[in-house]
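Researcher: Please predict.
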Amino acid sequence: MQGGRCLGVLLLVMLGAVAARRADAVNPETLLMPGKLSSAHAKYEEQCSLCHDRSDRNRQSALCLDCHKEIALDLREHKGYHGRLAAMDTSQCRACHSEHRGRDADIRKLSREQFNHELTNYPLRGAHQRVACDACHAAGRPYRSATEECVGCHHREDPHEGRVARNCATCHDVVAWRHVSYDHDKTSFPLHDRHRDLPCQSCHFGNHYKGTPRECVSCHEPDDVHHGERGGKCADCHTTKGWKNSKFDHTQETGFALEGVHDRIACNDCHRSGNLKDKLPRDCFGCHRGQDSHAGRLGRECEKCHGNEKWKPSTFDHTRDTQWPLVGHHEKLGCHACHSAVLAQQKLPHDCIGCHRASDVHLGKLGRDCEQCHTPEGWRASVSFDHDLTSYPLVGQHVTVPCEQCHLTRQYRDVGKDCIDCHRADDVHKGNLGKDCQRCHSPNGWRLWEFDHGRETGFALAGAHGKLACEACHRRPADEVKLKQDCLSCHEKDDVHLGQYGRQCDRCHTTSTFKGAKVH
């Protein structure tokens, strides 16, 4: 009874709706729709049979594919996003795409963040993984319409300006444009040695690839130091490893063998005019006059001391070839430091002072035998002077003091031997205790002193007196080194008896403290 009542109500509603519309425009099926179709399907709203088979509900997916033929093709060929989804043969379209939810309903239900691009015909690799969706998928166009050709997206970045094939992947990879894998060896001009390192545009100017010349001089005419005088067949002498790697046999062609560094320098280092027919000198001095640090003083036969590899070190042995062995710092000097004139015209002294008179800080006061204290290693290195052999041996901190601190004039004989001669400024007693500083102080330091106050003054420091600093009693060292020995001389202000019991406080008090008194 209840079901019949509901059916009656439904019929009344339908009849009311039919009455409100024209009889020829009424579609009873649309009156039973659960909701409006999305805007994409709105034009099919009156044609329910396009999507629904009243006798077989399972045909709905087949009806969908009748319209969406590109997806049907993907399913048959197992390609594209739908063709690669698992279990699509048994799935229904409505499982993912729901209709009758209104004009603005999203029936695709696509989540860009969760979308698996690996299921498409174009898996994302390399730099594509970091590109935003809108960079490839234009707004308002189906996602499947995005091009799969490189040039479809990158035509504005094409440095070849469309003059090469459209398939960029034959040379470039998806990681970066600069990763070029083009095999030039498959062309009629294989790249060898230095040519391999060149950028494409070095030879292919303006992105012109066809008709590129193959002759060396076509590209290297500005590099031709011969200015065309040797012809255009550069490969007869040079290789692709570099211009300096020449196949030219200099010994056979010129009679001048290139040895040592001569074999590695460029032709124009010697043939500076560029004309290889110009006659050049064949002796060392002829080319290297400007590099002769001897300024001609040692003659023109450089090969006596120098080799073809480099100027230094020289093969000249000063110990073997002269009577003056070079040791220590002398070995590091340049020849011209001593040989300042033409060798045949100059005789050098063999004693130290003969060369180093200007360096003698003692001004000749210590004689000419510099080697008594100094060595060839250097004036300040390994000085062997023994101060203990003088009348003033160095002990304590005197050992570490630089010579110049005491010997201000470097005459070394005009320095006093008393402590006060050097330490007058350090004497806190202002001379009141005499010059015999070592009575109390040690050469190991001013603060390391030993003064027996009882023995030296007759006033032993006992009790609290032993803890006092000297300045506590000797407040004016310049005037009062010797003080009175009665208590009240220092403690008059501490006397609570106001002098009534005399000046010898020690009759009742001890040196430990004033508090309390002796009990008699």
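Model: Residues 1-15, 17-24 have pLDDT under 50 and may be disordered.
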